[in-house]
Amino acid sequence: MDLCTHGSPSEEAARRLARMLTSDSPRLAVSGGSALTVLPLLRVLMGPAHAALRLTYADERAVPFESDQSNAGATRTFVSGVRDELRLYRDGESLEQAQVRASRAFDERFGGLDAVLLGLGADGHIASHFTGVDVEPTDVPVQLVRDSPKPPRERLTLSMDVLAATEAVIFATGEGKRAAIEAALGGGTTLPTARLKRCTIVTDLAI
Question: For strand 142-145 and strand 199-203, is the pairing parallel, antiparallel, or unpaired?
C-alpha cells in the first residue's frame, strides 16, 4: 500500500484514475461519500473517453434512488453519457434479488475492473466491508450485508475478491481519517484494506 499526500487530493486522485482507465472500454467502480468529489474532475480528465466508460459501484445501500444515502443517486451527473452503468440495487428489489441480478450482470458485462475509487471510513471500512463484520460468504461478485454497523443496515457490496484483484485509489481527507490511514499503512491484518494488493491512499494529511 502506498501513500500520496497532496494539497489537492481530489485532483490527484482523479489524475491517477484517469491513467488507469485507458482501455477502449474501461471498467470503474466507485464508492460513496467524500470520494464522489473526485468524479467531476475525472470526467474532465477523461474527456471524450468518458463515453466509453463502464461504471458500477463498490457498494450500495438498499435505499431508494432518490434518497440522499444512495450512491447511485449521488453519481447521476457523472453517469450521464457513459457506455454502461451497473447498479447493485434497484428500487423495490429484495437484497437477494439484487444480488442475483447484479452478480450475473457483473460477470456478463464487466468480468472484472480496471480501477476502483474507494473512501476510507474513520473506523477503517472500505466499500461495505467493516472490520469484524462478516458479509455472507458466496462465490459471486456481489455480497450481502444485512447488519451494517453504520446505517442503513442493509447493503450490497462488491466482494473482497473483486476489490483485491483491482488497482485501487482510496480518497481519505480530513483529520478524522488520520487514525484509519495510519492503521491501514501499518498493515493491520484485521482491516479490510489489508486484502488490497495494489492500492494508493491519496490524502491531504501529512502522515
Answer: unpaired
Order of strands, sheet of 54-57, starting from the edge strand that comes earlier in the sequence: 2-5, 199-203, 168-171, 115-119, 27-30, 54-57, 84-86
Flag residues of the chain having pLDDT under 70.
Answer: 134-137, 188-189
Query: How many other CB atoms are found less than 10 A from the CB of residue 2?
Result: 9
For residues 16 and 200, give the distance between their C-alpha atoms in angstroms, rounded to a whole number.
9
> Residue 50: what pLDDT?
96
Residue pair 54/82 in contact (Cβ under 8 Å)? The answer is yes
Q: Classify strands 84-86 and 54-57 as parallel, antiparallel or unpaired.
A: parallel
**pLDDT value at position 197?**
87
Measured between alpha carbons, how far is 151 from 121 in angstroms, rounded to an integer? 13
CB 61 within 8 A of CB 74: no
pTM score over 0.90: yes
Question: Residue 187: left if φ>0, alpha if ψ -120 to 50, beta else—which one?
Answer: left
- 23-34 per-position pLDDT tens digit: 999 999 999 888
